[in-house]
Structure prediction request, 574 residues.
Amino acid sequence: MAAAVLHGSADHAARFESKAATREPGLVKWGLITIALSFFAFFLLLPLVAVFVEAFRKGWETYLGALLDPDAISAIKLTLIAAAISVPLNLVFGVAAAWAITKFDFRGKHFLITLIDLPFSVSPVVSGLIYVLVFGAQGWFGPWLSEHDLKVIFAIPGIVLATVFVTFPFVARELIPLMEAQGREEEEAAVVLGARGWQVFWHVTLPNVKWGLLYGVILCNARAMGEFGAVSVVSGHIRGYTNTMPLHVEILYNEYQFAAAFAVASVLALLAIVTLVIKVWVERQAGKAATVSEDE
Amino acid sequence: MASSTTFRVLPGFGLSLGYTLGYLSLIVLIPLAAVFFKAGSLGFEHFWEAATSPRVLASYRLSFGASLIAAGINAVFGLMLAWVLVRYSFPGKRLVDALVDLPFALPTAVAGIALTALYARNGWVGSLLEPLGIKVAFTPLGVLVALVFIGLPFVVRTVQPILEDLDTEYEEAAVSLGANRWQAFRHVVFPTLFPALLTGFALAFARAVGEYGSVIFIAGNIPMVSEITPLMIITKLEQYDYAGATAVAVVMLIFSFLLLLIINGLQAWTAKRTGRAR
Prediction:
């Protein structure tokens, strides 16, 4: 359900501002800009600034101390592990799903797309709960797991599973509209000329969708590293073992270690900013590619 | 297109569809089914009792009410922001455009503690509101603030592409027929935007109802007053009340599925109204 599908970053203002019929009086224009930007500054910009100000309130030493704390380091490690497993899994799935859906005709296609979108419409807390009901002590596989001395819930596998669930649709969601728009002629021509399946994908499909793919992966990664609700349900909050960075932030905050909580939070905020920067860059590249192919 | 259903030129249909269905079932469908099986094993009376206890009912009222208001606020200001970003040029526009996606990218827990710090009694905003007698943090108003934050990009990003694709000729025609600028907006532009705006509203609403991380820090979580529904699930799980948690989860899931259907319908309407593939 994420509304952020890759689109070009062309500036349309000139087109509208050049004509009297689609232009507002200066007063209306600047009035609207002032209201919209005040709302933006108040609700989006201010919280972002607050994270960094609070993080450095007690100086560099506290800041670095919070990040070099062994529990913080193990939280960072676990976050990286969860992302390193869930992003590639969902990348492979996204490519397979987009290939099946856009290159072939079959019944129930729209229903399948809706099913792929499901994890976006499920509350993160419910996303965690479903795995507790499957793998938890009282769940379907609970007795079998404890017999074999395996732990999923309140352990790392549960955290990975919950992360995979919440980031499930990201890559597929970006690729499907792009590959749909591309059509099938180029791939079919390649097959007729003797290319094999992987060669077709690698040399024909991938170059056309690489920016959308990259965008999907970035969004997937940001969500994987930042997920809170779902992971919170399955983690059990065992310090130094099943805490991811967002959970570590929560623990520090609830212990009134505000500066430390914001220090760890600032790293996550930095990740969000990097994600947005890469997104702008990818959009610009995709925009360029689109202009080139229009010129051809 | 010549590709018939009987003969497929491209390879990999069985493999890619098989993998898609297998992975989808394993990660999403089977675990989701577990919730409904669990709920089914409760018996209707037990289920109903757990899903409609007074504290849970209060949480529905807060979650749905605050989400509706937040989505409404976002519809108004999101439309305005999308309009300003598409129609006007002003300094810093690219930066604003990029940062609109911040709530998608910023981990919810980070947003939660940042908003709490801002709106707490000694925070930058909270200390300004305190003399006016307005308390935001640890009240239902705080829940609203967090939900506005989380929902804004949904409206902006669904309305923005439709605004960009709009041809100038309709408004020019309206003006040449004697409409003023407001009438042209009200009768020409707005009806074209409306399905997308409604979609954005529904997306923001759906996200807000399920939202957890950005809300729980600022909500204060006072029983019957500022507890959201997802928190009720967590609370029940912490008391090992799996049945109760499942009952509430089923209510939320059914609601999300209904909204998903509505949103799909709205997106089809948008596509039809604007001639755009979604």
In short: The radius of gyration of chain B is 23 Å. Residues 1-6 of chain B have pLDDT under 50 and may be disordered. Chain B touches chain A through 111 residues (CB under 8 Å). The longest helix of chain B spans residues 54-87.
